[in-house]
Design brief:
The protein is mainly alpha-helical. It contains three helices and no strands. The protein has two domains: 1-60; 62-92. It is flat. The protein starts with a helix and ends with a helix. The relative contact order is 0.11.
Length: 92
């Protein structure tokens, strides 16, 4: 049974990554409202979802964990910058 738990967590981590990348690609394409960009974002999301499923097996590797920590920090920085940008536009 312990062999099943890592497989389930790997699958859910890979699926979660795929869902996040899909949502990001869709959001970017909608922001720019460009048909060509929308198609590229869809292709990216499809490829990322497939890659995320394969990557799921490596989520326990220390080097992969560290890279995801770095990616998470960069995503947080980006989110704060976007949030701050909209806060400053709505402030007098």
């Amino acid at each position: 049974m312990e062999d099943e738990k890592p497989k389930e967590s790997e699958r859910s981590a890979g699926e979660s990554l795929g869902q996040m990348l899909t949502a990001f690609g869709q959001a970017i394409s909608e922001i720019f409202n460009d048909p060509e960009l929308k198609e590229k974002a869809r292709e990216f999301a499809d490829a990322a979802t497939e890659s995320a499923a394969k990557l799921g097996r490596r989520f326990e590797d220390d080097d992969v964990k560290e890279r995801f920590r770095q990616a998470g920090a960069a995503a947080e920085d980006f989110g704060r910058a976007v949030s701050d940008r909209f806060k400053s536009e709505s402030s007098p």
